[in-house]
Fold each of these.
Amino acid sequence: MDGALTTPGSRAVDRLIEAVRGLKPEIDSVRDELDQRRRLPIALVESMRAAGVFGLWLPRPLGGAALDLVDYVKVIEELAQIDGSVGWCASIAASYSRLAGYLTPDVARSIFNCDGTVVAGQLMATGKAIAVAGGYRVSGRWAFGSGIEHSDWTIGICIVHDGDAPRLDDGAPVERLVFFPTSTAEIIDTWHVSGLRGTGSHDYRVTNVFVPENHSIEVVTPPPTTPGPLYALPFRTVFGVAIAAAALGIARGAIDAFEKLAIARGGRGGPGQLRDTPAVQSDVGRAEAHLRSARAFLLETAQDAWDEAEAGTSDALRIRAMLRLANAQAAVASAQVVDLMYNAGGGSSVYESSRLERCFRDVHAATQHRAVSPGNYELAGSVLLGLNPGIRRL
């Protein structure tokens, strides 16, 4: 990624990026298999474990990298640039490694026993947790379990019930995020989709599974058990950074793919190469401007949020609003970039053998995620205008 790196090997992020680049030949060799099998090959998963990409936000005492937000984006970008599905799976699992910072140290160690532990699941409250002695009896079905087929643990957010009645806090249902071994979940084959096919983001469900109290986390304002700005930052909004990073990487991959095509392919109806066409030159220039602008906004906002959290002076509402805005803009701009490159590629873009075809499908799947939806423009705008949309919405 141009301009993204310092001297290789000088910091943890540089070592991780070098490890990611080392995965490229293996990822390239299984690209068709990702789509056909709709999951990551186990051999690739093991290579990713060894590279440390699943523990980017895992606390350092547990062997993780505990990267700041900016460095996290750089690593995921690099991986999603190679392949969208691979980058997405890594980003989801790595973002969930951050949850260790809200568990007691012994429980965190039992779940995240290495930086290669993979946690799957999603953050919508479609489960039910009935309070019982020592914990909860959990039942429910969730969608979009990215990487669940190669995961060790799975999460789900549940509405807490006392008997038949939902537990309320200030009139709102109480939600808890629960951990359960993936072996206790039924994986439902639902992932028949256009983009990000290789992520295996199937539905999953559990029925009457016991989850100990200390294997669950409060959702709205979870108290961290690990010190530091990474775990002091807003819970749901920081997750959006993981989605935005993957989208940016896919967009960079599209520009790279088109530049190679423009050099290799003849011009439109005339002599010379495709790159000699003024309209094509304009498209590449606009794509580069869109991507770099959105990326700079995300990195600047992420750094501001980090600095304020580190200083203990953060305005939680404003941080949530601005990060949501930057996440959404990164996703929207990434889709615009891919569309420019896909259209510039002409008929070549429609073939399954084309990287542009893959990037087109993947980025438009990624931008459907709620964490980067256009609704975040309204949320951010309301805060910037001095209104309070409610902390639960952010």
Amino acid sequence: MKLHLSLDHDGYIPNFAAITEGKVSDIEVGRTLHYTKGSIVVFDKGYTDYKWFKALDNKGIFFVTRLRKDALWKVKERRAADKSKGLTSDQTIALTGIKPTKMGMPTLRRIGYRDPENGQKYEFLTNNFVLSAQTIAEIYKERWQVELFFKWIKQNLKIKAFVGNSKNAILTQIWIALCTYLILAYLKFSAKLGWSLQNMLRLLQLNLFLRRDLMALLRGDPPQHNAPETRQLCLV
């Protein structure tokens, strides 16, 4: 099984999720997604599809990804790159491969970047010519939030191992984990206490079998001791 996820940068909330067979490619699902004009979509090289890139560009949707090593291209224009910020190049390029040439692929922007921490080199590809090269590099860095999301739900919502091996059992467990995450995110937004999702989850786990108002629990209000229940269970 494979979980395909689109994470909204505003709050890092999942706004699309699809569970498919493991053999289904990432781009096959990516083509089905719909974004509003002006959106910036960030994805890795697994979503490389020049026809999809052109479709996004025609709809006024910006994308930021990494340039494949086997891509064929030529430089049309060069811009100054601030090497003090790790930037090594900022170019307008034309893809010269057979497929992009046949489909009339528009010119794109190639940005070279060297991570100052580990020295690793990156080549970013985008159709956005307005934002600075540094901003494009920072936007792609935000893609790591998807990996952190998967790591978080695996560690905290118990989907490293499954309680059942049937397709329905696996689907149920994954969807429950995603729904739980959304509920926690909503509680965090509503409480406005600055708690991390992990701390909130731990608190709820410790009080799982207590009947408490969730907001009062998160605020730390002392429990209210009501009068004991006088009704008795009637068996017929």
